[in-house]
Design a protein that fits this description.
Blueprint: E1 14-20, E2 23-30, E3 35-38, H1 47-58, E4 62-67, H2 78-90, H3 104-119, E5 125-130, H4 136-140, E6 146-152, H5 162-165, H6 172-183, E7 188-194, H7 202-212, E8 216-221, H8 250-266
Parallel strand pairs: 3-4, 3-5, 5-6, 6-7, 7-8
Antiparallel strand pairs: 1-2, 2-4
Length: 270
């Protein structure tokens, strides 16, 4: 039991560069079992992100954590965020403000997911994105190797204006492809957010629910004043910073639902 978010370290992780479509990022790998790609949130592979990664390894997955920004293992200080975020906002690889746009990082991520699927057992892989990278998990699901996409507090495109508030970082063609796969039962997605999180407008999930129907599961944690979980109105990081390993804790329950969701999609029953 703890009053702080679970953390991890780089110990035991093997890092190597992965190149696709002219883009190269280091990828840290560990574990055995069905594959899961865990894309870090800003400012990068923080101890809290590694804590989630280690939990997934302990749950029986082989986890690949790409490092597209930030310093692996460094804490999420204000300085680290200020060094990383401005560069991401203008990077053509991510296109943080664009709507209906194809993003180079999405192509690279799909290649990584396909590579992980070739290396691991099971019918396919899962992808988890968080905050800045949340919606990229759904973009990865264009590839047939991705069977489960988890969008935790997906904050891009940054919700400046009504159109961006409802958008996800996919082009129309990519979203159509994912919608088709969902309709055929080939992929399912899960979205997680706090109820008062202005960086992740509720309309974003409403739109995805209309497109994906029963293939999109929403987990919304109450962060309104006086909420039973004790979350502040600025609560944001559902699977990392807000998790407390206490029985009955809502963010802990959300993390366990994600693990169960991945098992449902990626583990072949005996």
């Amino acid at each position: 039991m703890t009053d702080r978010a679970p953390v991890g370290t780089l110990a035991g992780w093997t890092a190597a560069p992965f190149t696709a479509d002219g883009i190269t990022h280091d990828v840290h790998r560990r574990g055995s079992g069905p594959g899961v790609v865990l894309i870090p949130e800003v400012p990068g592979m923080t101890p809290e992100v590694l804590g989630l990664a280690e939990h997934l390894v302990d749950a029986g997955f082989e986890v690949a954590v790409p490092s597209p920004f930030g310093e692996p293992g460094a804490p999420a200080t204000v300085g680290a965020i200020l060094r990383v975020l401005p560069r991401l906002c203008v990077a053509s690889e991510f296109r943080a403000f664009a709507t209906d746009a194809r993003r180079p990082f999405s192509d690279w991520l799909r290649a990584l997911a396909a590579d992980l699927a070739d290396r691991t057992p099971g019918p396919g892989v899962g992808v988890i994105g968080m905050c800045f990278t949340g919606g990229f998990a759904l973009a990865a699901a264009v590839d047939g190797s991705v069977l489960a996409a988890v969008l935790s507090q997906p904050a891009t495109p940054f919700p400046v204006g009504r159109r961006r508030a409802a958008a996800v970082p996919l082009s129309t063609a990519e979203l159509d492809a994912v919608t088709g796969r969902a309709a055929r039962g080939e992929v399912c997605a899960m979205g997680l957010r706090f109820s008062e999180d202005r960086s992740v407008p509720r309309q974003r999930f409403d739109g995805l629910r209309r497109r994906l129907g029963a293939a999109f599961e929403v987990v919304e944690l109450d962060s309104s004043p006086g909420n039973p979980g004790g979350f502040s109105r600025t609560a944001h990081s559902v699977l990392t910073g807000e998790v407390r390993e206490r029985e009955g804790h809502p963010a802990l329950a959300a993390r366990e639902r994600v693990v169960a969701f991945l098992r449902e999609r990626l583990v072949v029953a005996d």
